[in-house]
Specification:
Length: about 80
């Protein structure tokens, strides 16, 4: 881990041209992420020096890595 980011436990991405399904659950400092039904991250930010001071609320964003990307069916649910 470096700079407050955590690598996924497994690479569960589908090949280019296929849709991935991601579910992200944030409860307090805990972030749990499943990709295609596989758990790829489950971290408590308060347990790591690099993330301990990160805010627990704020903006939601999506990103790309310099290539074309599409998003669909983005849904948010307050817990």
């Amino acid at each position: 881990m470096g700079r407050g980011y955590f690598a996924p436990k497994v690479n569960a991405t589908k090949p280019a041209g296929e849709w991935n399904q991601v579910e992200i659950t944030c409860r307090g400092p805990r972030i749990r992420i499943t990709l295609g039904g596989q758990l790829i991250q489950d971290v408590d930010q308060s347990q790591h020096d690099a993330t301990r001071e990160k805010p627990l609320s704020g903006y939601i964003s999506v990103q790309d890595h310099g290539h074309r990307i599409e998003f669909r069916n983005i849904r948010l649910k307050e817990l």
